[in-house]
Design goal:
Helices cover 26% and strands 26% of the residues. The strands form 3 sheets. The protein has a 6-stranded mixed β-sheet with strand order 5-4-3-2-1-14.
Length: 265
């Protein structure tokens, strides 16, 4: 199957409408691909906290509508990155959307691990609590977002839910690029999955984005990586590699799930 990561430039001077038009154009150009992945919160700006309330939208909002139409036009599965979703009760969520080749919404994942400690996402957004995988015509896709990469428990949950490929939209800070590179390889290697990590580039909210979107195979080998400009990375994946590698190096079979916490002496 053929997958493309569309590493969008998200700068403070852009409006959400301008970003939607640009993203839709880039997705429409990917006719012939099987899966296209966009970055995290690219419409609102992942670090532009002051824009979230204004840019929040529902699952039928302008970003979802534009991405649904683009997926249908290109005939691709589209991981539309994530949006600032406003729930009916007013709570904001960082929500990933996965559309099928007909433009139908097939997967929604609310980010479980919210970044910011005592600021930003951690205080302005609610957290999800569902592990989400979606069957497609090329394999089972698991959904995670950015900061989730630091929490292996989620990726084990995705593995147990059948994931063969995990898509991770992100707005990772350039200052921690070395962590991004390490964690994307580690998560792919430990779960023996393909990992498609699409990070924004540009600067907004005072934060320079890392770029360096990457496709990593189940051996932990980087099959392709961007730099810091807006660009599209396209890689052909052999999904039969997932069961082959899991059989050749059956480490997942040796998991011990009954380890007990130490007792006091």
């Amino acid at each position: 199957m053929r997958a493309s990561l569309v590493q969008l430039s998200v700068d403070a001077s852009d409006t959400a409408d301008e970003r939607r038009r640009r993203a839709a154009s880039l997705v429409r150009a990917r006719t012939g691909d099987d899966l296209v992945v966009l970055p995290e919160l690219w419409a609102a700006g992942a670090w532009s906290y002051d824009r979230w309330e204004h840019e929040a939208e529902g699952l039928d909002g302008p970003t979802a509508q534009a991405m649904s139409a683009a997926a249908r036009r290109a005939g691709v599965w589209l991981h539309a990155g994530s949006i600032v979703e406003r729930d009916a009760d007013g709570t904001l969520y960082n929500t990933a959307l996965l559309f099928d080749r007909h433009g139908d919404l097939r997967g929604r994942y609310r980010k479980i691990h919210r970044y910011g400690f005592d600021t930003g996402e951690a205080t302005l957004m609610g957290g999800g609590d569902d592990i989400v995988t979606v069957p497609t015509d090329f394999g089972v896709v698991g959904l995670a977002i950015c900061y989730d990469l630091r929490f292996p428990e989620l990726f084990r949950g995705l593995l147990d839910a059948g994931a063969e490929l995990v898509a991770v939209p992100a707005a990772w800070p350039a200052a921690r690029l070395s962590h991004w590179r390490l964690l994307t390889r580690t998560r792919a290697l430990e779960e023996q999955v393909f990992l498609l990590a699409c990070c924004a580039t540009g600067t907004h909210g005072g934060m320079e984005q890392a770029g360096h979107s990457a496709v990593v195979d189940p051996w932990g080998t980087v099959l392709g990586e961007t730099r810091t400009a807006q660009e599209t990375l396209t890689v052909d994946l052999d999904m039969s590699e997932v069961p082959r590698i899991r059989a050749e190096l059956p480490v997942l079979r040796d998991r011990v799930l009954t380890i007990k916490a130490p007792t006091s002496p």
